[in-house]
Amino acid sequence: MSDESSTIPPGQFACPGCDLAYEAEAGDVARVEQCPGCGQPILIPAIDGSSELPEETEETAEPTDEDHLNRLHVQQLTRERRSLIRSRSHAIVGVGLCVVGAGELLPLSIRAIYQHQFGIWPATYLVFGLYLPFAAWQLTQLALKLHRQSKVELLDEPSTPPDFSTLQDGSQFVENLKKMREGK
User: Fold this and answer.
1) pLDDT value for 23
2) Residue 39 CA to chain centroid, in angstroms?
3) Stated pTM of the model
4) Each residue of 46-57: pLDDT tens digit?
5) Residue 18 to residue 174: CA distance in whole angstroms
6) Distance between CA atoms of residues 184 and 181, nearest Å
């Protein structure tokens, strides 16, 4: 061992990237952690001093073709759900336009009929004024159908529960930053 490693207290490791003294407890097997200062990987040896990493860690670190396909599947499902929600929103806007249009055209055509102004335009206003509530009803039905489709769960439930044991809550990062501040 070099002189540099003998000056570091037990339980602390120096980051090769930024020379930050990083405190960690040795476990049953060696592991790699990221430096809280620069993000460089730091090898934490096992209690017995061995620095060989378990093979499982190396294999799970590489994404597999199945992971890539799963990610693509989730992206496709997300696009489909967004498309359904967008289409539903357009249908709702269409309902509003139909209601407003009917509210404008029907009184206009009725006023023209009471004033005895028969012609192509009052008749057209009346036809469209009577058709727009029907169109609003159809768009409402479409919006409800799209809403139901967007709420359907598209992914199957996983067969095994997710493994959250490797996740950290961030408190370790905060503690390391506090120790860095105290060390200066």
Assistant:
1) 74
2) 24
3) 0.50
4) 777 776 776 654
5) 18
6) 6
